[in-house]
Design a protein that fits this description.
The complex is a heterotrimer of chains A (about 300), B (about 325) and C (about 350).
Chain A (H helix, E strand, L loop, with lengths): L1 H33 L1 H23 L38 H37 L1 H16 L2 H10 L6 H28 L2 H8 L4 H38 L11 H11 L6 H28 L6
Chain B lengths: L3 E10 L7 E11 L4 E5 L6 H8 L8 E9 L2 E2 L5 H7 L4 E4 L13 H13 L3 H14 L5 H4 L9 H13 L5 E5 L7 H18 L2 E6 L2 H7 L2 E6 L2 E7 H6 L4 H8 L50 E3 L2 E3 L17
Parallel strand pairs in B: 3-8, 3-9, 6-7, 7-8
Antiparallel strand pairs in B: 1-2, 1-4, 4-5, 9-10, 10-12, 11-12
Chain C lengths: L18 H33 L4 H6 L5 H10 L6 H14 L12 H36 L4 H15 L2 H11 L1 H4 L20 H7 L3 H38 L2 H8 L4 H13 L1 H25 L4 H10 L3 H29 L1 H4 L2
The chains are: A mainly alpha (about 300), B alpha/beta (about 325), C mainly alpha (about 350).
């Protein structure tokens, strides 16, 4: 009798996971491919990721080599600061701006991704526990989440960053990740709450599927969509918040580091009147990438919205 | 001249990335002053779209309306938006299916009535409020003056529908269109609302277009009935005629599918086989053919025309013979 | 026309007293609900203070710390006592507004806050007014001409608006707009302007003392920072208004309103907007969070001496007493504003009210 029941459960499990995952995913993909917004976002983010990964190989010069010192031609051509051998000019230490921007892509992506991933990881653990167990576990955890949400995000990031005696890149990463934690916790808990009462979960429970299996194989795949959407959007804000923290002096103080937020802060604070391009280049880079991820995230949300299914 | 003359009304829905869809296909009918006409059919047959097209309430984009809708001689489809707005509420009124979603949730019921009176009869807020109390009383809402300041969510479903009827009739329109007004209500409330409608139109002499999928509603209310299928009228008859001798196989099927109280135990229910999805387009024959028990080969080739038949109209190559009509009596 | 049917059963409606009383009960309930959150927040801030690098005493003393001073401060702060005791001391001090003295200015932090709070309030309110006055009409127009060129432009602008780092926008405005528009690029008040300060609300003070040049000066100093600060809330409010209006326009009761032959204006005002703007109210509450964070950046860029500037300076100089007070204050303000938003929602949405 037991083996019979187990044999029944397996195909049902597979079917449930498959029905939810594949059909929604495939339809979402086709819808995204038709949307110009999605394509733009996808292209931008794709380019960004590629550049970031291959930056050290593509960069024409060593981003740390202070080659051109002294004689800097401030010729105002079409590209301000451009001179032979340095397509985008050099920065205040005579380093090639283009190379620094490319390597900066890598660091910026790293910061953004790590901050988001850590935020997601901690967030879905908290939200998952709250949603799966309910009761007082839920109340306590959600109370904590509420408090984190009651602090404006930048202030929260500042508080966390201030705990570090010696600020570094990791200060920024951890601080920004903390901003995301309550968002993902709420998201996952909400999703699980909705699903706890849904038919497929009730069916699985009545068939005797264990709670753990229900959570991992039935509820989590359904929650995946909103989490991915939110993670994409959070990546954009993470990059922006990291830049803000650098601006406030809570980031890596090392002037050698090539990261867009740091480059932007320095450029804006110090060189805006003399060499504005040192601020504009990283600014444009950040804006375009943040825009790209936002477009991607928004179009993902549209594509995955079950209300749009016919 | 009839109060309302609908001629060849056609509504095509065109959406980006989808095939054009003809919801209403050359529908023509008249409504005389004081008459109650029914539009009957299953979901998707185009009856609601017809009523929205008459009232010019379809979305501005995504559809094409052609034909003519003459109300007291004037073609409503050719009017400007401003002129049409003058007529709506004043000359034509409409009652919708879901009374909760059809009322503005954040303003009191009283205001939703007085705004019609203020708009079309130029009444002051004060005078309109007094009239509104009277209207609510006429539709059978108890303690009407208190209701004026209440919000839709504070009323029960039946009372909301009564309020909607009061709103529609506030300016005494000559024509009232009721689109499935009882479908969203409990069965006992349904009977009350229908009785209310019947009483009101009799007393005020308002013409009524009753849109429904429920033949029971039609039996109690309508003088003349149009049966729609696939966007076209397939049968028109006076009420007693329709129920006594349904000629179109679809009508016949609808009547036969109603479970009867006096049927013997264990007697099977008789559905119409197939579904609306099994239609074939009208230009390739009769849309109902795939589901029709009377289907002949010609039904899948030649589209039947709407022709006079026995005092009414019929669109069928092989109608139901009166002698064969089993169990088609009215109740 | 007489009656014909038995009257329908009497519907149950709430008789919870007059409207004012309902609102009051709502307010009290929300306040009580906020208390546990604030309590947990205070615990977290307490824990935060004790986790600061070097320990709270060293942190509070800053670079004036010597082993003896640390020891004596430890004793004063009661750091050698049980934690629970310390927490309640902290709580007591916080409730009386005693956060110690700023390391930078050596002034009591609380009085610093009092002095500079009005500046931030002026800036914040100006920014929010801008965001609402521009955002709501923009969102409505966007919805009305959906998918048209205007709509696309507005959507693009809102997307870019949230992608631009606020501090960079501030610097850019300083650099590019201040001179051409004849606006001051920094500060809150022109040097040398002898304006009477009563409440420290520059505009209010000027009006009260009829010093119109002071009023004008204050406004001129507010323009650029307010616009910079307003960018993100503006973008969000526009998007939310657009989405909400679009949703409402598809509702059945709009069809009913049209079927009554009401003028387009009435339909728009009484039916579309009154429903469509409800979510915007909530958004305004949430955006004060963005304002609080953005104020730190904007005030720093424009040298606008308000609480944000204090905070930025405090971060740079590791002024922990100031940081502690300001962070708690920021959270408090955010919680209060959201509570107000909740209550106002209860006032304007009758479905929420009747409980």
């Amino acid at each position: 009798m037991n083996t019979l029941l187990n044999k029944k459960k397996e195909p049902i499990d597979k079917l449930a996971a498959a029905a939810v995952g594949k059909s929604l995913g495939r339809e979402a993909l086709s819808r995204m491919l038709r949307s110009p917004v999605a394509i733009t976002g996808g292209v931008i983010t794709g380019l960004f990721v590629l550049l970031a990964i291959f930056a050290p190989l593509i960069a024409p010069k060593d981003p740390f080599a202070r080659t051109l010192q002294g004689e800097v031609n401030l010729g105002r051509g079409i590209i301000p600061g451009a001179q032979p051998g340095f397509p985008l000019g050099v920065d205040d230490f005579g380093r090639d701006e283009l190379s620094r921007l490319l390597v900066g892509a890598q660091n910026t992506l790293l910061v953004g991704v790590l901050a988001t991933v850590i935020g997601v990881a901690i967030g879905i653990v908290i939200g998952g526990l709250a949603g799966a167990f309910g009761g007082w576990v839920d109340t306590v955890l959600m109370r904590l989440v509420d408090v984190m949400l009651s602090v404006p995000s930048l202030l929260l990031a500042i508080s966390v960053a201030a705990l570090f005696a010696k600020p570094s890149q990791w200060t920024v990463i951890i601080a920004v990740s903390m901003v995301g934690v309550p968002i993902f916790a709420r998201l996952l808990r909400g999703s699980m709450l909705v699903q706890r009462n849904s038919d497929h979960v009730l069916a699985a429970t009545s068939l005797g599927v264990k709670r753990g299996a229900i959570v991992f194989r039935h509820m989590l795949p359904n929650s995946l969509g909103p989490v991915i959407v939110q993670a994409t959007l959070t990546l954009a804000t993470a990059i922006l918040e990291a830049a803000a923290l650098s601006f406030l002096g809570l980031g890596d103080p090392d002037p050698n580091r090539a990261e867009w937020g740091i480059m932007l802060s320095k450029g804006a604070k110090q060189f805006l009147d003399v060499r504005p391009e040192l601020a504009y280049y990283p600014a444009i880079a950040i804006i375009v990438v943040a825009l790209g991820f936002t477009l991607l995230g928004e179009s993902l949300r549209e594509a995955l919205d079950p209300k749009n299914r016919r | 001249m009839a109060l309302l003359e609908v001629r060849d009304l056609t509504v095509n829905f065109v959406r980006r990335g989808e095939r054009p869809f003809t919801a209403v296909d050359g529908v023509s009918f008249d409504v005389e002053p004081g008459q109650t006409v029914g539009l009957v059919g299953e979901s998707g047959c185009g009856k609601s779209v017809t009523s929205l097209a008459i009232m010019r309430l379809l979305a501005k984009r995504g559809n094409k309306v052609s034909g003519s809708v003459r109300f007291e001689g004037t073609d409503l489809l050719r009017l400007s938006d401003k002129d049409m707005r003058d007529r709506r509420g004043r000359d034509l009124g409409m009652v919708f299916q879901d009374p909760l979603s059809s009322l503005n949730p954040v303003i009191p019921i009283g205001l939703q009535i007085t705004e019609v009176l203020e708009r079309h009869r130029g009444m002051s807020r004060k005078a309109a409020s007094i009239e509104a109390v009277d209207l609510l009383d006429k539709v059978g809402i108890p303690d009407p003056s208190r209701r004026l300041t209440e919000y839709p969510h504070q009323l029960s479903g039946g009372m909301r529908q009564r309020a909607l009827i009061a709103i529609a009739l506030a300016c005494r329109p000559r024509l009232l269109i009721a689109d499935e007004p009882t479908t969203a209500l409990d069965v006992t409330i349904q009977a009350q609302i229908l009785a209310l409608l019947r009483e009101l139109v009799q007393d005020t002499g308002t013409a009524l277009i009753m849109i429904t999928h429920d033949l029971g509603v039609v039996a109690g209310l309508c003088d003349e009935v149009n049966v729609l299928y696939g966007g076209k009228i397939v049968e028109r008859a006076q009420r007693h005629q329709l129920f006594a001798e349904p000629r179109h196989p679809y009508t016949h099927g609808l009547l036969a599918s109603i479970p009867r109280l006096d049927a013997g135990r264990g007697e099977k229910l008789i559905p119409i086989r197939g579904s609306v999805a099994d239609n074939i387009p009208w230009d390739g024959g009769c849309a109902f053919a795939p589901r029709c028990p009377n289907a002949l080969p010609v039904c899948r080739e030649v589209s039947p025309r709407l022709v006079p038949d026995n005092g009414g109209l019929l669109r069928c190559h092989n109608p139901v013979r009166p002698a064969v009509a089993a169990g088609g009596g009215t109740r | 026309m007489g009656w014909v049917l038995p009257r329908p059963p009497h519907a149950r409606t709430s008789r919870a007293g007059t409207k004012g009383l309902q609102v009051l009960r709502f307010l009290v309930r929300r306040l009580l609900q906020a208390i546990p959150t604030l309590l947990v927040l205070s615990i977290l801030i307490f824990a935060w203070l004790r986790s600061l690098p070097g320990g709270p005493a060293a942190a509070l003393l800053g670079d004036k710390a010597t082993p003896e001073k640390i020891a004596s401060l430890n004793h004063t702060l009661g750091l050698d006592q049980p934690i629970i005791f310390q927490y309640f001391r902290f709580l007591g001090r916080a409730l009386t507004g005693d956060f110690g003295n700023s390391l930078v200015s050596s002034q009591p932090v609380m009085s610093e806050i009092g002095t500079f709070l009005p500046a931030t309030i002026e800036l914040g309110i100006s920014a929010m007014i801008l965001a609402v006055l521009i955002g709501i009409p923009a969102g409505y127009i966007s919805a009305r001409f959906r998918n048209g060129p205007v709509d696309n432009v507005i959507i693009l602008l809102t997307l870019v608006g949230v992608a631009v780092p606020v501090f960079f926008l501030g610097y850019m405005m300083q650099d590019l707009l201040a001179a051409p528009l004849g606006l001051p690029s920094q500060g809150r008040q022109a040097a040398g302007l002898d304006a009477t300060a009563i409440t420290n609300f520059a505009i209010l003070d000027g009006v009260m003392t009829s010093e119109w040049d002071a009023v004008w000066d204050a406004i001129r100093h507010l323009i650029l920072p307010a616009f910079a600060l307003a960018t993100i809330p503006l973008a969000v409010i526009t998007r939310i208004t657009r989405a909400s209006v679009l949703d409402v326009m598809n509702e059945d009761f709009i069809r009913t309103a049209n079927s009554k032959g009401l003028t387009q204006q009435v339909v728009r005002r009484r039916h579309v907007l009154r429903n469509g703007l409800l979510p915007v109210v909530t958004t305004i509450g949430l955006q004060t969070g963005a304002l609080l964070g953005g104020a730190v950046l904007t005030e720093r860029v424009f040298n606008f001496r308000g609480l944000g500037f204090l905070l930025a300076e405090g971060i740079e100089r590791r002024d922990y007493p100031r940081l502690q007070a300001l962070l708690l204050f920021g959270a408090l303000v955010y919680v209060l504003v959201n509570m107000l938003v909740d209550v106002s929602y209860g006032i304007i949405d009758p479905r929420v009210r009747v409980r």
